[in-house]
Amino acid sequence: MKKILVIFVAISVFIFVGFFIYSSVSGSNVSNSFDINTRGAYLISQVGKILLNDSDEISVTPFSLRNGTKLSSSAKSGGLIVLGTGEELGVGENSEIIILSNKKIKLLKGELRFLTPTNDALFVLWDNYSFRVRDKAVFLVQEIKKRRNQVDYQLIIKIYSHAVRSNVNGNKVLLKGYQYILDSSGIVSEFRMIKAPELKEPIDGKNISIDEGSNIIFKWDKVPEASSYNFYFSYNPIFLNSTLINIKKSFTTINITDFKESPVFWKVCGVDKANREGLCSDPFKFHIKNLIQILQLWKNPPKLKIEGPLTPTGNLVIIKGSTDLGVNLTINGEEVNVDSSGNFMHILRFNTIGEHSIRIVARNLSGAEKVFTKNVIIYEK
Fold first, then answer.
1. Where are the alpha helices (DSSP H) in 209-275?
2. Of 140, 210, 353, 359, which sits 20 to 30 A from 99 (CA to CA)?
3. DSSP-assigned states of every residue in 310-353
């Protein structure tokens, strides 16, 4: 009986140890990937065609991105990525990136823009280099020349704020306000970019009523070092398919009439005497209201449709829905962009655990409004 008891205990210990090892291995496999349910990275908006791992075309956003996911954008295409920690990244056209982790991205080709300051350092890998980024910056891989069956590339880095640390030339610090060009052997050139212009009119978020043929006048402050200005406007916040107009130094205004969508995003960058583009302004946007809509008195509340149950993902809540064109839409007091089809998407981030309120208000030009409210419970920061 005693021998049987010893054998039973030995078998139990063996089973327990085996289960523990299996659980540990399984857990480690799970932790090496992430999706929207574990506060991972996700593509929240896109323009044009984006491929997942060179094969599947992404047609629905938000789309969760796991470790090892490769994203490829085609011509006139790109997207906006939000990491689980809240940072926003813009992927330009003809680009390829690999999401290695929630804080590490490999840039293969094209353009990667860091649009918001980071709570913690993010790492960009290119060629045999690693860059530690904490704020707004642009990384652009460009083809420089072709030889027989060989293509050479360079990396352009524009640093808007906070120095970037890298393993180039023995932990080189790339300075704020500078542009760097690198190849596989190191830094090719560097120069200080001229400062960004300050935008003046139309003010950010303005609603503009225009008739066909009417002018919209854009104004910005003069930059003494600028020999000219590059004026950009686009119908998306990452300036894909943007229109570029170069303006002589003596002018700090431009009139434009041909807008086909709303909202319109615009920015201005100074150009120095060597024809090098400097730092660009923070973008402004404005909404165009059709004159007929302006003259109408909207007495009835606008439509407001919310998709999904608004279930928290970690400390994030993704809100998608639709409303009428021309309305002012706010979520917890923050103005939210409504596209030309009346659709919108917004991500709320809560920094404390517990119950929180979500209040969505759609208000039309007559002041009539539709309100949606819901309480959610956040279980993790």
1. none
2. 353
3. ---BTTEEEEEEEE-TT-EEEETTEE----TTSEEEEEEE--SS
The whole-number pLDDT of residue 39 equals 55
Long-range contacts of 254-257 (CB under 8 A, 24+ apart): 254/217, 254/218, 255/215, 255/216, 255/217, 255/218, 256/215, 256/216, 256/218, 257/213, 257/214, 257/215, 257/216
Cα 340–chain centre separation: 20
Residues 330 and 332: their CA atoms lie apart, in Å, by 6
Residue 176 within any structural domain of the chain: yes
pTM above 0.70, yes or no: no
- Does 188 lie in the same domain as 104? yes
- Please give the residue range of the domain that contains residue 314: 298-378
Residue 7 CA to residue 33 CA, distance in Å, equals: 40
pLDDT score for 372 = 95
Residues 6+ apart with CB under 8 A from 133: 114, 118, 121, 122, 123, 124, 164
Q: Is 333 exposed, middle or buried (0-12, 13-18, 19+ CB in 10 A)?
A: exposed
Domain boundary among 266, 293, 320: 293
Q: Which two tokens stand for residue 44?
A: 């929240």
Neighbouring residues of 323: CB distance < 8 A, sequence distance ≥ 6: 302, 303, 304, 305, 329, 338, 342, 344, 362, 370
- Phi first, then psi: what are they for 340, rounded to 5°? -70, -10
How far is Cα of residue 25 from the mean position of the Cα atoms in its chain? 34
User: Which pLDDT score, from 0 to 100, does residue 18 have?
Assistant: 44
| Grouped pLDDT means (10 residues each) for the chain, 381 residues | 43 38 34 41 89 89 87 93 85 94 90 88 92 93 78 92 87 92 92 95 84 72 94 90 88 80 91 94 85 50 88 90 86 88 89 93 83 91 73
- State whether 144 and 258 are in the same domain: no
* Nearest alpha-carbon partner for 253 in 228, 217, 285: 217
CA-wise closest residue to 174 among 193, 190, 185, 188: 190
